[in-house]
Amino acid sequence: MAKGYWIAFVTVTDIEKYAGYRQHAPAAFQKYGARFLVQGGDAIQLEGQGFQRHVVIEFDSKEQALACYNSPEYQEARANRSGACEANIVVVEGL
């Protein structure tokens, strides 16, 4: 079965408000077996809109990645980042 990945690009605009997201999100990631492959790090913007943070999270399947995103645990975390950042997030099936 192909693995599933979250690919996220994030720019934090209110670090204090974003702290609520960082407090709640780990529960969802742990519950759904998330493995962080990229989280921050040195990045060079070659094309498109630039973001502060780049994140790649691996899950056992695309379905597991979607279940994590749609879970009550993650939706609570997501509500805590409302107005605290700009984010683009996609779920992708691996090869």
Considering the chains and any ligands shown, give keywords for the structure.
95 residues, 4 strands, alpha+beta, four-stranded antiparallel β-sheet, single chain, Alpha-Beta Plaits
N-to-C SSE string, H for helix and E for strand: EHEEHHE
**CATH fold name:** Alpha-Beta Plaits
User: What would the average pLDDT be, to the nearest integer?
Assistant: 96
CATH classification class: Alpha Beta
Cα separation of the termini: 9 Å
Name the helicity range. Answer: 25-40%
Derived from helix and strand composition plus strand pairing, the structural class reads alpha+beta
Q: How are the secondary structure elements laid out?
A:
Blueprint: E1 4-12, H1 15-31, E2 35-39, E3 53-59, H2 62-70, H3 72-81, E4 85-93
Antiparallel strand pairs: 1-3, 1-4, 2-3
Helix pairs in contact: 1-3
Overview of the molecule:
Helices cover 38% and strands 32% of the residues. It has helices at residues 15-31, 62-70, 72-81; strands at 4-12, 35-39, 53-59, 85-93. Strands 2-3-1-4 form a 4-stranded antiparallel sheet, with helices on one face. It has 95 residues and is an alpha+beta fold. The chain has 3 helices and 4 strands. The chain has a single domain, classed as Alpha-Beta Plaits (2-Layer Sandwich), CATH 3.30.70.
Question: What is shown here, in short?
Answer:
The protein is α+β, with helices and mostly antiparallel strands and 95 residues long. The chain is built from three helices and four strands. It has a single domain, classed as 2-Layer Sandwich (Alpha-Beta Plaits).
